[in-house]
Write a structure and sequence with these properties.
The complex is a heterodimer of chains A (about 160) and B (about 170). With about 160 residues, chain A is mainly alpha-helical. Chain A has six helices and no strands. Chain A is flat, with a radius of gyration of 21 Å. In chain A, about 30% of the residues are buried. Chain B is globular. Classes of the chains: A mainly alpha (about 160), B mainly alpha (about 170). At the A-B interface, helix 2, helix 3, helix 4, helix 5 and helix 6 of A face helix 1, helix 2, helix 3, helix 4 and helix 5 of B.
Chain lengths: ~160, ~170
């Protein structure tokens, strides 16, 4: 998706130069929420201010919004059909596989040290079995990371 | 009702780090466990549909759940809710020209969150898996899909369409 945005915004329309594009990409990746939405806020603001931002966000969200509303309406109507139920019977395990596959790849590419493997395992147990909200886990992680950075800075000074 | 849907998805949007899969567990907890707007089986259906359609999973799920719960207005409320925090935060970042990504303490947060993200994705897999395996057929589909997507990196849309067709014929 990123190469697609780059082609449209930088190569074709020359709305942003490469450096501005990369700064925006970095910001969009670190801000919570879908990268596509974050990036459209950035690009819209750069081009035409507040209203540019609104238009850009609508442009990003509207196509899938309309699509999903239509599908949701159809699904509500036809969910009871045997054929549809049969399809979803096979879709559900396939979805689990589609989550498992990138999980395996991400675990490898994250180069997580065996000594830290307890972190994802603990998170998984807390969320999936003990019903602890990911919100608390994310907040705890953020606070811990900031304290750790402060501590390391203090020590090096 | 609409307001509480908006606020619930605001909360989800505010803490959606680590991409689509990482926030599925949070959506499941908020929407299925806490508010009982949909059942966990419906949630698995919605995740399947969100994966087959273009656009970010978080937004697709919000739109779909909103529609199930409150029609068109519901889907508008949930979709706006899930993107509202990103818009405000991104506005702040863009307007202040903060290069957050260059601050060491900020980078440290994301390095640590990466490990948490793995756990959150694993949790989503388990939560959705709970309703996905009623019989042996489902296990075969799971193994086959995992193999195909691992071995050939098949586009998820084709893989899911294939699974749906197999389900209709054999399921």
């Amino acid at each position: 998706m990123i190469p697609l945005i780059h082609r449209e915004v930088v190569e074709k329309n020359h709305w942003l130069d490469d450096e501005t594009f990369l700064d925006g990409l970095a910001a969009s990746q670190s801000c919570p929420g879908p990268i596509a939405v974050n990036f459209s806020v950035y690009i819209g603001m750069h081009l035409k201010g507040f209203w540019g931002m609104i238009v850009a966000v609508l442009g990003t969200v509207l196509p899938s919004f309309v699509f999903i509303v239509i599908i949701a309406a159809l699904f509500t109507q036809y969910a009871q059909l045997t054929l549809v139920q049969k399809a979803f019977h096979a879709l559900k395990p396939a979805v689990v596989a589609l989550i498992a596959s990138p999980l395996l790849q991400m675990t490898r590419s994250s180069q997580i040290k065996p000594a830290f493997l307890w972190v994802p395992v603990l998170v998984m147990i807390l969320v999936a079995f003990l019903n602890i909200s990911p919100i608390w886990i994310i907040l705890t992680t953020i606070i811990f990371s900031v304290l750790q950075s402060l501590w390391q800075k203090n020590r090096s000074e | 009702m609409l307001l509480s849907m908006f606020l619930t998805f605001c909360k989800i949007g505010l803490f959606s780090f680590g991409g689509g899969y990482a926030i599925l567990a949070m959506i499941q907890q908020e929407v299925v466990t806490k508010n009982a707007w949909i059942t966990s089986s419906e949630f698995a259906d919605i995740v399947a549909i969100s994966q087959m359609t273009p656009g970010p999973i978080a937004i697709n799920a919000a739109t779909f759940i909103g529609y199930r719960q409150g029609g068109i207005l519901g889907s508008v409320a949930c979709t706006l809710g899930v993107i509202f925090p990103s818009i405000i935060l991104m506005l702040a970042i863009t307007l202040t020209y903060i290069k957050l990504s260059k601050l060491p303490w900020f980078q440290n947060i994301f390095q640590k969150l990466r490990f948490v993200t793995l756990g959150l994705i694993a949790a989503a897999m388990i939560l959705i898996g709970k309703t996905a395996f009623p019989d042996f057929f489902s296990i075969i589909i799971f193994v086959a899909a995992l193999f195909v997507s691992w071995r050939w990196k098949t586009n998820p849309i084709y893989l899911l369409l294939g699974a749906a067709v197999i389900g209709m014929i054999l399921g």
